[in-house]
Amino acid sequence: MDSSSPRYPVGDRAVTLTPVGVPSYALDGVVEMTARLLRRLPVRLRPAARDGGLLLTGGGALQPRLTRRLREALRLPVEVAPEPAHATVRGLTRLCLQPSLAGGLAAGR
To answer: CA–CA distance from 63 to each of 46, 67, 85, 92 (Å)?
Structure first.
């Protein structure tokens, strides 16, 4: 974070906000959590994750700093879903309409 980023007191620490108002610790937390989840992938699924990368969904996917930080930290392709705020609902709707799509999603299989 550059020195021009505003810092605000929160409890016993100062929080730096990104230019769009997202606390830097929140971005760090998402990057760390994603890295942990990728490390927990079964070995046989890791090549697909490396090759296919990540597809971000939800409102947070609209944060360009998050996308950039994930790419840098994970060294994976990271893309934003079309209309990311609605992507999860669209995906769940497809699964409800075509339950057979869920067969390949279970990590334990």
So the answer is: 26, 7, 12, 23
Cβ(61)–Cβ(36) below 8 Å: no
**pTM for this predicted structure:** 0.67
Q: From CA 36, how far away is CA 26, in angstroms rounded?
A: 15
| DSSP letter for each residue of 7-75 | EEEETTEEEEBPTTS-BHHHHHHHHHHHHHHHHTS-GGGHHHHHHH-EEE-SGGGG-HHHHHHHHHHH-
Task: List pLDDT tens digits, range 68-107.
Answer: 999 999 999 999 998 888 888 888 898 889 888 777 665 4
